[in-house]
């Protein structure tokens, strides 16, 4: 499927980035995995996951994983990364912009005048500046061959985010900005043979989410006792399969500039999550959770 393709998953240490990198590897791609946490050096997160672990998962899945420590707020480091990809591979077919790093900075249900300003502005830099810096340096290489794909990973579809406040002015802006960036980049990429989309997972069982709920991937349903709507959640590999399916589609340009979800693409491409289910989170949120109906995923997975 993707055996001759080269991908860069920027922000692949954990969560959606790790799931996407792994599934691109499962499809046979060579995947450069970047982030700030290595086995020798942690980022401000203080989390245990590393880019080396993700690269090993890529290789184990059937691809070739290459870990490179990069701070995507430092243009020189991103430029050096792209120069390395050019020297080693001579091409870049897929750029996944999943750089984030703001989970511990969000002050939920807090208006802007009460929210810690330093944390809020740092969140925006991590979510917006990093993506623009990476696109600036990497897309020039990607467009040298037709058929390239840019994926801006976000939280929420354009429709859902337009209708719902995401409980923090900074978080709301950060996640809406990624959708708009995909739309804008698509304008520039299309005449050059490239495709740009925004993709959101649903309620994703990231390492941080599982830890906060006191469960593992193996027993995640136990968390539904305290958080009933968690029944619609999905593994990070589900959005990974969405990206891999999209990247392998010879007609991917039909999606250019669109806001997509893992559940939506599962219906089109016919893939399932690791447990064999096919969760449709954003439809569930609108039709069940947001209407204060009892948690029931029947018909939604």
Summarize the main sheet.
7 strands, parallel
Give the overall form. globular
User: What is the helix/strand order?
Assistant: EHEHEHEHEHHEHHEHH
From the N-terminal CA to the C-terminal CA, the straight-line distance is 26 Å
So how many helices? 10
Low-pLDDT parts are none
C-alpha Rg, in Å?
Answer: 18 Å
Total beta strand runs: 7
Measured as a percent range, the helix fraction is 40-55%
Strand content: 5-15%
The SS-based structural class is alpha/beta
Q: Given this structure, which CATH class is correct?
A: Alpha Beta
Mean pLDDT: 96
Q: How many individual domains?
A: 1
What would your notes on this structure say?
The protein is α/β, with parallel strands linked by helices. It has a single domain (about 5-210, about 235-285), classed as NAD(P)-binding Rossmann-like Domain (Rossmann fold). The protein is built from 10 helices and 7 strands. Strands 3-2-1-4-5-6-7 form a 7-stranded parallel β-sheet, sandwiched between helices. Helix 3 (about 75-90) packs parallel to helix 4 (about 115-140). The longest helix has 26 residues, at about 115-140. The chain starts with 5 loop residues before the first strand and ends in a 14-residue tail after the last helix. The model has no long low-confidence stretch (mean pLDDT about 95).
């Amino acid at each position: 499927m993707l055996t001759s393709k080269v991908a860069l998953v920027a922000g692949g240490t954990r969560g959606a980035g790790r799931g996407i990198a792994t599934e691109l590897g499962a499809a046979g791609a060579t995947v450069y995995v970047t982030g700030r946490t290595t086995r020798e050096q942690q980022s401000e997160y203080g989390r245990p996951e590393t880019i080396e672990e993700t690269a090993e998962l890529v290789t184990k899945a059937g691809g070739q994983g290459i870990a490179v420590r990069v701070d995507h707020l430092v243009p020189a480091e991103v430029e050096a990364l792209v120069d390395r990809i050019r020297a080693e591979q001579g091409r870049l077919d897929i750029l996944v912009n999943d750089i984030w790093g703001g989970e511990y900075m969000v002050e939920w249900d807090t208006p802007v005048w009460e929210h810690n300003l330093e944390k809020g502005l740092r969140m925006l830099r991590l979510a917006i500046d990093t993506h623009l810096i990476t696109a600036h340096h990497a897309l020039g290489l990607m467009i040298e061959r037709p058929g390239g794909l840019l994926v801006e990973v976000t939280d929420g579809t354009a429709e859902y985010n337009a209708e719902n406040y995401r409980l923090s002015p900074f978080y709301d802006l950060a996640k809406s900005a990624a959708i708009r960036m995909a739309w804008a980049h698509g304008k520039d990429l299309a005449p050059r043979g490239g495709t740009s989309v925004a993709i959101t997972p649903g309620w994703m069982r990231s390492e941080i989410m599982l830890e906060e709920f006191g469960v593992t991937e193996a027993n995640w349903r136990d968390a539904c006792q305290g958080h009933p709507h968690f029944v619609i959640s999905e593994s990070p590999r589900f959005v990974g399969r969405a990206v891999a399916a999209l990247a392998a589609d010879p007609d991917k340009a039909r999606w250019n500039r669109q806001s997509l979800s893992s559940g939506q693409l599962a219906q089109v491409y016919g893939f399932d999550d690791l447990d064999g289910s096919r969760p449709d989170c954003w439809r569930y949120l609108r039709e069940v959770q947001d209407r204060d109906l009892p948690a029931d995923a029947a018909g939604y997975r």
